[in-house]
Amino acid sequence: MELKLLVVTNDQLDIETLAKHISEMDPYVDFFIIREKSKTIREQIHLLDQVIKAGVSKEKLIINDRVDLALVLGISKVQLPAHGLDVQEVENHFPSLQIGKSIHSLQEALTVMSVQADWLLYGHIFPTNCKAGLPARGLHTLRSIVEAISIDVYAIGGIKPEHVQVLSDIGVKGLAVMSTIFDAPHPAGKAKEYYQACQRSVIFNKE
């Protein structure tokens, strides 16, 4: 199974620069989680307009937290933070949306599965600067979650290209990356490295 690559925006770039990076990464990335908490709603709309005009499909866009923004722009996927809106509540009011939920434990995964989220985002798996001082959750619980539930699980947090194969072996649907890509001198080139690692994992698993 080919792993999906998600890229999470880092809320540190101006609109034009971020839109340019997303457009350049588009050939290598399956989904973009737009997580720009410091930008106003108007700024986020402007960003997404630029991204869509550049040719990025709405189907590849996932809006973090802001259900209203997704609805206004006709984007069908949202990512709800662990302490954000309840999956069932959003599903009840907006049944057309596809809903992901961020989780940090097996118990949270089991709870979210019971209300039928479309996917889960679990982390952080490895040490990462954006979670400095917090211990990484590691692979053991990730494996337990994948084995215990029937919905797609994506791993996030400190993931580097060399980690892709072990994540594939565990059985995740894909991986999400933020800092390693956006901190790189050429984000699109770094995204391509992850894409190629995902492709190699498919070949390895077929052998």
UniProtKB/TrEMBL annotation:
The lineage of its organism: Bacteria, Bacillati, Bacillota, Bacilli, Bacillales. GO terms for biological process: thiamine biosynthetic process. Residues 5-181 form the Thiamine phosphate synthase/TenI domain. GO terms for molecular function: thiamine-phosphate diphosphorylase activity. InterPro entries: Aldolase_TIM, ThiamineP_synth_sf, ThiamineP_synth_TenI. This is Thiamine phosphate synthase/TenI domain-containing protein. CDD domains: TMP_TenI (cd00564). Keywords: Thiamine biosynthesis. It comes from Lederbergia galactosidilytica. One of its GO terms (cellular component) is cytoplasm. Pathway: Cofactor biosynthesis; thiamine diphosphate biosynthesis.
